[in-house]
Amino acid sequence: MPDQFAVSISGLPAFLAYFGASIAMLAAFVVVYIRLTPHHEFALIKANNSAAAIAFGGAFLGFILPLASAMANSVNLFDFVVWGAIAFVVQVTAYFGNRLVIRDLSARISANETAAGAFAGIVALGVGLLNAASMTY
């Protein structure tokens, strides 16, 4: 029985490295994303702004999806971080694409226009899903 336990947790260092790297990349994404958007996501969400919560939630999950795919398909930690950075750039690009499609996106989210927030969140999720699928090499 002790041997089985040792075998079971032998992957713990790799788990901690990948999980830690993913949390660090996720935190970096959140910091960059909230600085790129003219509106203040957390203040709006705290004020019960559904549009902000939906848009930010879509961007957040839209980054997590390819990050998880990169983790599952990477050959080592460095490979994971490289593909995580690519996912980061793709999701930021999706945000700027959303701003081109929806004029005054930030103002509309700040005004709690749910349709604008939902569209932005859905685009971010869709791009994230395509991004994740593209990382199954």
Features:
about 85% helix, about 140 residues, about 0% strand, single chain, 7 helices, mainly alpha, elongated
* Structural domain count: 1
Strand content: under 5%
Q: Biggest β-sheet, characterized? A: none
Number of strands: 0
Output the helix-strand order. HHHHHHH
- Please report the number of helical segments: 7
Radius of gyration based on Cα positions: 17 Å
- How helical, in percent, are the residues? over 70%
Could you say which structural class the secondary elements and strand pairing correspond to?
Answer: mainly alpha
How would you state the average pLDDT, rounded?
95
Shape: elongated
Poorly predicted regions are: none
Q: What is the terminal separation in angstroms?
A: 37 Å
Could you explain how this protein is built, in words?
The chain is mostly helical. The chain has one domain. The longest helix is centred in the first third of the chain and has 25 residues. It is elongated and about 60 Å long.
